[in-house]
């Protein structure tokens, strides 16, 4: 689990670092392989090749890899920028391509089965660079091969054949050489594919670890909100109590101005309470606490009436009236809490964003196994550009913010989640200045 | 009509103070206890007509739940209103069936609503 707490940037670096290490290791194997082959060829096999040049190329390869290795040890202690890492990799890849092509050129060129090693180089390059860079490298390699072929064809540069005469011994040596070459290609292919598979698995695991890390962070966050909001309710209850005592004049008649101010204070406290309620709902829905939504057969009309009674006071203050158009016999098997969250939030919003003395209509209808619930107001409406975002967490439209200072922007996010938990659907129809209508379709599970 | 006595059990003294003033204003006589033990003593000694019990004590969440059941053991006919700081059924770690309270009230509650409920039981 410790790995889960490595920040992403470091992880990426260490990952790239690992790839570079791996490359250097592979190159060491290649150096040794070439050295070994050259020694065998020059001493035991009857193949004439420009061995001095070949040993020099191998020496150069060993030197280059030593340099890379030393650099890698050195940079281990400091963090390279992405650009520096890329430059380092490009240098390595260019030197690899060049040295391989040179080696092949001096050992029969296209006749040499080792030419297929270029495939491995392209595979390795594909690990590190995006498609475009890979195409450039491939194209450059092909160009280089064609150029060498053409130059050889025009006799501008010499051709170094793998064999000179056709006697039986040489033929046998060539068989060994080709078989050996093919075997090495097969082995390297198998190794590379296995490595790629490992690497993919490793990445997958890293993603899982990271995901679980973020999930646990999200859980901590939700639990924190839950704890804090619970603790906030107590003091608020006391504040609201004291307000009520003062407003009722239980401590003596208050001057008009004090009543006005206290009423304002009370309104803000009420808003705060609503916001805390929303945060608790939201945190619960987001925390991984196993929430079992118990289902009961409930009358939709009763649920609507209960929720209207909860907001009646605030509606009355704004002169807003409710028109309920719902048959009393519509029942559905559902969870009370979730329905309350949906109705509570939508009704609160419809009051908040209605004009004074407006009307809010609640309609419900049942067809087959579905219940359609429509809550419409004639209020400020929602701008077309913002319609897509209103269900986002903490999102509040510009008009909503200007009209009502207090708000969490969680109400509709809760509605969306609650509807989802009930396997229902929610749609919104609105035009700026022309009211808003929420259509909720809920499955009846009875 | 004789004055009815209501016992408030809550660890928050400000809540006790506000509820006391508001309910006294409605014509009730009020007793209060800031912990469950004291509250249980008062139920035995002072015969309240109704108990308002905060079931979200910070010491241990279950204490409030247990207290409701203890009250019912002492006097099964005594109405108990459980006050919670939470407003949804799913927020309980216990099912409501396990708690022997007559009403569950979400804190804070408007006094007229509370009085309406109290009058239903007295």
Any key phrases for this structure?
heterodimer, A: 446 residues, alpha+beta, Heat Shock Protein 90, 3 domains, five-stranded mixed sheet, two-stranded antiparallel ribbon, 11 helices, elongated, disordered N terminus, B: 122 residues, alpha/beta, Rossmann fold, five-stranded parallel sheet
Structural features, described:
The complex is a heterodimer of chains A (446) and B (122). The longest helix of chain A has 80 residues. Chain A has three domains: 163 residues; 70 residues; 148 residues, Histidine kinase-like ATPase, C-terminal domain (Heat Shock Protein 90). Chain A has eleven helices and seven strands. Helix content of chain A is 64%, strand content 10%. In chain A, a hairpin with a 2-residue loop joins strand 4 and strand 5. In chain A, the strands form two sheets. Chain A has a five-stranded mixed beta sheet, with helices on one face. In chain A, strands 1-3 form a two-stranded antiparallel sheet. By secondary structure, chain B is α/β, with parallel strands linked by helices. Chain B has one domain: Response regulator (Rossmann fold, 3-Layer(aba) Sandwich), CATH 3.40.50.2300. Helices cover 40% and strands 20% of the residues of chain B. Chain B has four helices and five strands. Chain B has a five-stranded parallel beta sheet with strand order 2-1-3-4-5, sandwiched between helices. Chain B starts with a strand and ends with a helix. The mean pLDDT of chain B is 82.
């Amino acid at each position: 689990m410790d790995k889960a707490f490595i920040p992403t940037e470091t992880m990426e670096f260490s990952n790239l670092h690992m790839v570079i290490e791996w490359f250097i290791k592979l190159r060491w194997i290649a150096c040794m392989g070439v050295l070994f082959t050259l020694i065998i060829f020059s001493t035991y096999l009857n193949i004439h090749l420009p061995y001095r040049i070949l040993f020099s190329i191998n020496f150069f390869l060993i030197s280059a890899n030593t340099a890379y290795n030393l650099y890698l040890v050195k940079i281990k202690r400091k963090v390279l920028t992405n650009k520096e890492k890329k430059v380092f990799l490009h240098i390595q890849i260019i030197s690899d391509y060049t040295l391989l092509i040179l080696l092949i050129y001096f050992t029969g060129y296209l006749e040499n089965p080792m030419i297929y090693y270029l495939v491995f180089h392209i595979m390795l390059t594909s690990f590190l660079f995006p498609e475009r860079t890979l195409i450039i490298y491939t194209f450059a390699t092909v160009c280089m091969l064609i150029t060498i072929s053409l130059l050889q064809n025009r006799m501008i540069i010499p051709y170094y054949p793998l064999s000179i005469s056709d006697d039986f011994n040489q033929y046998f040596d060539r068989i060994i050489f080709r078989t050996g070459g093919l075997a090495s290609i097969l082995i390297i292919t198998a190794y590379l594919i296995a490595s790629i598979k490992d690497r993919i698995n490793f990445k997958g695991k890293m993603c899982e670890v990271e995901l679980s890390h973020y999930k646990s962070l999200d859980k901590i966050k939700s639990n924190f909100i839950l704890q804090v909001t619970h603790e906030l309710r107590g003091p608020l209850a006391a504040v609201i109590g004291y307000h009520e005592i003062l407003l009722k004049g239980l401590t003596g008649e208050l001057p008009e101005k004090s009543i006005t101010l206290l009423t304002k204070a009370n309104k803000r406290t009420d808003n705060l309470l609503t916001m805390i309620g929303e945060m608790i709902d939201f945190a619960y829905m987001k925390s991984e606490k196993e929430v079992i939504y118990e289902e009961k057969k409930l009358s939709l009309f009763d649920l609507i009436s209960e929720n209207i009674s909860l907001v009646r006071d605030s509606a009355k203050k704004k002169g807003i009236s409710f028109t309920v158009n719902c048959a009393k016999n519509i029942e559905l098997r559902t969870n009370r809490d979730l329905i309350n969250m949906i109705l509570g939030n939508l009704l609160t919003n419809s009051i908040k964003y209605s004009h004074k003395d407006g009307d809010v209509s609640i309609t419900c209808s049942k067809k087959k196994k579905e219940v359609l619930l429509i809550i419409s107001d004639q209020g400020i409406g929602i701008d077309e550009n913002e319609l897509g975002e209103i269900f986002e967490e903490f999102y509040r439209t510009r008009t909503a913010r200007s009209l009502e200072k207090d708000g969490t922007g969680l109400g509709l996010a809760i509605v969306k989640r609650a509807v989802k938990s009930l396997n229902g659907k929610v749609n919104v129809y609105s035009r700026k200045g022309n009211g808003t209508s929420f259509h909720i379709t809920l499955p009846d599970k009875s | 009509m004789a004055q009815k006595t209501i016992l408030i059990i809550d660890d928050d003294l400000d809540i006790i103070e506000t509820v006391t003033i508001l309910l006294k204003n409605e014509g009730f006589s009020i007793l209060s206890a800031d912990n469950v033990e004291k509250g249980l003593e008062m139920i035995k000694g002072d015969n309240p007509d109704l108990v308002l019990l905060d079931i979200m004590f910070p010491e241990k969440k279950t204490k409030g739940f247990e207290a409701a059941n203890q009250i019912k053991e002492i006097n099964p006919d005594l109405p108990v209103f459980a006050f919670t700081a939470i407003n949804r059924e799913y927020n309980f770690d216990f099912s409501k069936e396990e708690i022997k309270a007559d009403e569950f009230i979400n804190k804070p509650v408007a006094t007229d609503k509370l009085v309406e409920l109290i009058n239903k039981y007295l």
